[in-house]
Amino acid sequence: MLVVTGTCTGVGKTVVTAALAALAAARGASVAVVKPGQTGVEPGAPGDLDDVRRLAGVTDLHECARFPDPLSPAAAARYAGLPPVRLPEVAGEVGTLAKSRSLVLVEGAGGLLVRYDDEGRTIADLARWLGAAVLVVARPDLGTLNHTALTLEALAHRGVQLAGVVVGAWPDDPDLAMRANLRDLETIAARPLAGALPAGAGALDPAEFLLAARGGLAPAFGGVFDPVAFHAAHGLPQKEIP
């Protein structure tokens, strides 16, 4: 199993989750995707798991709770007058799914330490209970270094294994900060990037998306992403210090 979280909201977690699911399904693996708490979506409206279904063709999808307001799961539950997400129960459901699936993906809401209930439980707690590694999805632009460093420090403090850092949406025309951030993101993570999905990948058709997923994720996740080649194409050249 693998937990997907972000450094903040809107970083491309759902697209990365769909990419992981698409690559696993293309290998013939049985894949289940779990969304413990969907917020900002009315009942009956398409949510994140519908995007996963559309992009990856995976239908083994499990949304544990839904709240209509675009807030943290804990705040959204309070505002709607509904019970909060019960992460211990989610852990049990994920554990049951993992017994009969090749891969279970769990997509969090917002960032790593977003609260799911008034006791302060987070997706980091769920990962720790499951013994699952966490894939962190980061932005490429200015400000991402601090957000990523804080996220990785929080994971390490809780004894949760890092599966890697993926840039959720790499633009066609990256600016100076984005190009410089490639090297620093790897320094923060103490490992090469685990991938970079192209911006706009979520609007592709399934066949095109599978190609983007393959090129945008590292071999550990079923792709062919080469961080050295990506640096050569998109990173800043290293200048010699006189």
TrEMBL record:
It catalyses: (7R,8S)-7,8-diammoniononanoate + CO2 + ATP = (4R,5S)-dethiobiotin + ADP + phosphate + 3 H(+). It is found in: Cytoplasm. Its cofactor is Mg(2+). Keywords: ATP-binding, Biotin biosynthesis, Cytoplasm, Ligase, Magnesium, Metal-binding, Nucleotide-binding. The active site is at 35. It comes from the Bacteria. Substrate binds at residue 39. Mg(2+) binds at residues 14, 50, 107. It holds the Pfam family AAA_26. Its EC number is 6.3.3.3. GO terms for cellular component: cytosol. GO terms for biological process: biotin biosynthetic process. Pathway: Cofactor biosynthesis; biotin biosynthesis; biotin from 7,8-diaminononanoate: step 1/2. GO terms for molecular function: ATP binding; dethiobiotin synthase activity; magnesium ion binding. Belongs to the dethiobiotin synthetase family. Catalyzes a mechanistically unusual reaction, the ATP-dependent insertion of CO2 between the N7 and N8 nitrogen atoms of 7,8-diaminopelargonic acid (DAPA, also called 7,8-diammoniononanoate) to form a ureido ring. HAMAP family: BioD (MF_00336). Homodimer. This is ATP-dependent dethiobiotin synthetase BioD. It comes from Actinomadura rayongensis.
